[in-house]
């Protein structure tokens, strides 16, 4: 079921995020990770868990189409292996803290 979100709305720890042709979106996860989605982008938030007490968790994102900039938060800084980004053609572990990734849904 699709729904429009407004600034301040909560999203589920597993949810598909979509932007339209002339739109973009930014979201901040509880660990401080920032995800900026470009126009016509589909991203599956496959897994997000975070314990603020221990500052441990995991994040898995699948970029279906479009472009995304991510600045990792406490999860990525504390345990880079706990953050992954997948596209149709590759899955990458994140070792840096600020990166851009794009995917063409027509790719093999």
Question: What's the helix and strand layout?
Answer:
Blueprint: E1 15-18, E2 25-28, E3 34-37, E4 42-51, E5 56-71, H1 74-78, E6 83-86, E7 91-93, E8 98-103
Parallel strand pairs: 5-6
Antiparallel strand pairs: 1-4, 2-3, 3-5, 4-5, 5-8, 6-7
Q: How many β-strand runs? A: 8
CATH architecture name: Sandwich
Give the rounded overall mean pLDDT: 89
Largest sheet: 8 strands, mixed
The helix/strand order is: EEEEEHEEE
Q: What structural class results from the helix and strand content?
A: mainly beta
- Through-space gap between termini: 28 Å
Quick one: overall form?
Answer: globular
Structural features:
108 residues; mainly beta; Jelly Rolls
């Amino acid at each position: 079921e699709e729904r429009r979100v407004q600034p301040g709305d909560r999203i589920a720890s597993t949810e598909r995020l979509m932007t339209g042709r002339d739109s973009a979106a930014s979201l901040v996860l509880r660990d401080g990770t920032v995800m900026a989605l470009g126009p016509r982008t589909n991203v599956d938030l496959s897994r997000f868990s975070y314990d603020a007490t221990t500052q441990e968790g995991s994040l898995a994102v699948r970029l279906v189409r479009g472009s995304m900039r991510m600045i990792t938060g406490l999860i990525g800084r504390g345990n880079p292996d706990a953050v992954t980004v997948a596209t149709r053609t590759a899955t990458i572990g994140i070792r840096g803290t600020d990166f851009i990734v794009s995917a063409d849904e027509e790719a093999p």
